[in-house]
Amino acid sequence: MKFTMASFAALAVAGFGSAAFAQDKVEVRVMWYSDGIEGEVMQDLLDRFEKTHPEIDVVLDNVAYQVIQEQLPIQLASGKGPDIARVTNLKEQAEHWLDLRDYVEDPAYWEANFGDRFDWMRPDGSDAIPGFMTQLTLTGGFANKTLFEQAGVEMPGDGATWDDWIAASKEVMESQQLPAAFAIDRSGHRISGPNASYGANYIGDDRMPAPIDDGTMTFASKLVDWTNQGLMLPEVWVSAAGTTYRAAADDFINAQIPFYYSGSWQIANLSTKIGDAFDWVATGSPCGSAGCSGLAGGAALVAIKYTRHPEEVAAVMDYLASEEILREFTERTLFLPAHKGVVEAGGLNFQSDDPNVAPALDKFISASTETLPFADALPAWKWANAYYGALVTRISQVMAGEISLEEARTLMDQDIADQVSAASQ
Amino acid sequence: MSRILTFVFRRRGHGGRWHWTDIATWIWLIGGTILMFGPALWLVASSFKGPAQLAEFPPTLLPYIQQTAVVEGYDAPLPLYTATLEDGSVEVLAEIRRIGVNSQMVDPENPGERINVNIADRSPVREIGFATGNYVEPLVANNFLRFLWNSVFVTTMATLITLLTNSMAAFALSKYRFRGRDAVMLLIVATLMVPLSVILVPLYSVVNATGLLNTLWGVILPTVATPTGVFLLRQYMLTIPDELLEAARMDHASEWQIYWRIVLPLAAPALAVLAIFSVVWRWNDFLWPLIVLSQREHYTLQVGLNTYAGELNVQWHYILAMTVVTMIPVVLVFVFLQRFITTGIAGAGIK
Amino acid sequence: MAGFGKTLGRAVTWPLTLVARAVDPPLRVWQRWTGTGGMAAVFLAPNLAIFGVFVLIPLVLNFVYSMTGGTGILLDQRSFIGMEQYGRLLECEDYTRRITCREDQFWTAVTNTATFVIFQVTLMVTVSLITALILNRNIRGRGFFRAVFFFPVLLSPVVVGLIWRWILQRQGLLNLITVNLGLEPEVWLNDRFYAFAATVGVSTWAHMGFYTLILLAGLQAIPRDLYEAAEMDATPPMRVFRRITLPLLGPNFAVVLVLALIRGVQIFDEVYVLTGGGPGTSTLYLTQYIYEVGFASILRNPGLAAAASILMGAVLVVLTLLQLWFSRRAEGRRAR
């Protein structure tokens, strides 16, 4: 009976599998996640690629971001995975990326246009070309201009501090009877720019994690106070345990909060979802005692080392990284470009009728000059995620009243140390 | 009417008097019905709301759509608002555009004259309506039929294999005495202790090693050896008298025939319960398929619909609508097969 | 219609019947060779093979994982460190203060889970018993109501969590009700007490139908004449309940109790979707802790997670031995 079952199974698999794809083409699989419309744009670009390259079949596997974060690492560890993937956790998994240097048509073109950020995605000291950033991101704030106007409150201008912004938002909250004055995404990455603005530094002299410093504690204690005073929307940080990511974009979109600290990637999302409901502006990052820093980051499209078709993968990558295609991708998705040629040529024709979009993008581009050196070093730092994870987990607990800020400081140091010692086992 | 009421509220109390337990019973039952169905109905109602309305506070019970009107001189229909004018009068006006806190409005009856209204003094005119786009857009954009087929395939195959292997094992464990029977039983029981969600990494290694990654069989096989099924069936088979089996052996029936021709048909009620449970469980499976399947032609419905959760944004209006879609088969099972379950569990005794 | 159904049923089972006929002759040979006893092996083999590969081996691997360290995900990238992970889980400076423990979140999860199980099992058993007693009464539409309480059992845990999150959040149904009653709206899941109560209530809501049916089956097996006799003696109802219903319900009651315990300890999906463990860590339960540490967190540590899951399994084994003991006793009573 067992034998019969097995052959029955084999039969079913054969019948099922054969229909899926033809044999003569080389299949290149791209694992991709979407926050907005970029999946559709990418599909469109790939369809055009397939027309000119009939020998390559590019399959775009749209997955949830959770899959990229949780399943992809396991696949990579077992030497599996897609051929190309859109990834944000670049540095820690650098060993799994394919060095495209020998496969791409013109390595010099890659060096010239993407070279600045290869260190984000390759091991320290390597000269590999693992892929390219599909977009740059910069953390920053958004304000609901209409709510400020309705409340008759002046929006803080350039150089305003975090305290200024929260005070102004508080006035708006009180006058418009909103549930909170502001929100910041539940993420260690998001608060690291502000931390830097208050003088934080995570990176020790030996490039190992430094103990939590006073700069980090300053902003953390502000966050906790704001939460306790009912100024920061509590749902976002308090109502989850562990390192779970929670965005507050929906609350901003629904005009529940006048001020929202997130990042440049939200522009397309805000534009489509807010529509004409109210006017909004990007504010850049409010200032602290040490500066007005945001934090750069982004997602990259990387080739995976375990592919069986490096040549075809490189062909796809060459196409997608070409200036013309990347320009179109950027213009349609409203992302900040990471391609030097595109940036320098300027004149991007962002495809949006929304009058709020262009000024917001400009604001982020100008804010990108204000990031502090420490913030710029973070994306290429191996222990950044360990630090982010500890920050989110423990600060949330303080906000929920479970531990004191001082206890949190000890626990964060311990969490990070545990992570470092586990890695050396 | 009163006769119907008497009929419906027939009760145990003596001589037409309402005993307090009768009242308590009906409060419990009617309250229970509201509590059991109400939440699901709220989900269905919410799934027809647009993104903006989902976030509204306080929420509305039913989905609404803003009314629009075609106004002379404007190509697109304009949204309608109830506006309070400066003189205190209230009128229904159409909005041309909003600039800052001012709304430029026009009376649909008198399109020539523009009226400026503060946006705090206007509220949208709405009627009950359904944001069907929540359903249509994902179903069209996604490879919906493929996902559906995969889900059906997984559910059917897993259920068939579950029924077959579990009933064979249950037959052996209930009708034979052999060394190690209790050990096997204990071993199967022991697996109840560790839920799937805590052994994901080792299980993934095994599925990877057997080459079943990114195949539907990688989803099916780890779920079919359920201890629950073996238990349920064994418990039921214990009630089948051994004399029946002995009689068949007298007639030179083989053991396989005894299993196939006698025990299986007699165990039909328990098999039906297991089949229904298995269908519902496998249809609802989410975490494991999500881990095994990362290529889109293999996605099951539950995995395919999860793509609406991005790194930074979750598209709730789609997620709610798609949740309702995945609930449909479950509701059908409930409506048409609940009698088998409720009487079956009672008959089969214990899970 | 019925005829059509029968034809359809035959069409479906027909290939299976053919297969069943085809395997009979070889099995007969096998039976002659090994005797009837050897057939037990044949019947067990398919289930045990699948079981062995996809359940047993991962469980053994899990045990091996619990004795390894490092950040690697697959076993061959990890180093053997003995019982260190267990030590790390159990190490506290001061056992009366969770925060001094090396893995304070593990202890938070343990105490949370224990509290949850106590409240949830009590509520579950009470509500299921009351419902079963009511459904056992001679009421109209008993079949309908029996099904009503079963509906949530069929929903997937993810859907259950989602449904209730949509009721309890700021823009949820519950606030619609509170506002209409003239009360202040509340962010329910942000409050430690309400969030905990929600996890208890929602998991009871989702599973009570199942336990109700088991109890109902027990109630219906109690002979009617016992009640009639009690009625003749004019025994007070509470006494009837204590002296007749409860003792005769015993075996089913025990099964419900222990099954509810096991599932209570393993609670995960619906709570994960509903509260995510918050506010703070007040609804962080054991399975979520293990899932996050071992799999989902950016600070992944599969060894530590495996050790925690083994400890959880050990506790559950004790609970299951209880179950076996109870059902043995129940079988003995039924025989009498």
Describe this structure in words.
Chain B: Pfam families: BPD_transp_1. Chain B: InterPro entries: MetI-like, MetI-like_sf. Chain B: Residues 148-337 form the ABC transmembrane type-1 domain. The complex is a heterotrimer of chains A (425), B (351) and C (336). The termini of chain A are far apart. With 425 residues, chain A is α/β, with parallel strands linked by helices. Chain A folds into 2 domains: 23-136 and 297-345, 3-Layer(aba) Sandwich (D-Maltodextrin-Binding Protein, domain 2), CATH 3.40.190.10; 137-296 and 371-423, Periplasmic binding protein-like II (D-Maltodextrin-Binding Protein, domain 2). Chain A has 18 helices and 8 strands. By secondary structure, chain B is of the alpha+beta class. Chain B has 3 domains: 2-46; 64-128, SH3 type barrels (Roll), CATH 2.30.30; 135-348, MetI-like (MetI-like fold, Orthogonal Bundle), CATH 1.10.3720. Chain B has helices spanning 2-8, 20-47, 51-54, 133-141, 144-175, 181-190, 200-209, 216-224, 227-237, 242-250, 255-266, 268-284, 287-292, 301-305, 316-348, and strands at 64-66, 68-69, 78-84, 90-99, 102-107, 110-118, 122-124, 126-128. In chain B, the strands form 2 sheets. In chain B, strands 2, 3, 4, 5, 6 and 7 form a 6-stranded antiparallel sheet that branches. A two-stranded antiparallel ribbon of chain B has the order 1-8. Residues 4-11 of chain B have low confidence and may be disordered. Chain C is mainly α. Chain C folds into 2 domains: 2-60, no CATH class; 105-335, MetI-like (MetI-like fold). Chain C has 12 helices and 2 strands, in the order H-E-E-H-H-H-H-H-H-H-H-H-H-H. Chain C has helices spanning 2-65, 84-90, 104-135, 142-148, 157-168, 173-180, 192-220, 224-232, 237-265, 269-274, 286-296, 302-335, and strands at 68-69, 79-80. The longest helix of chain C is centred in the first third of the chain and has 64 residues, at 2-65. Chain C is globular and about 60 Å long. Chain C starts with a helix and ends with a helix. The interface between B and C is large, with 95 and 99 residues.
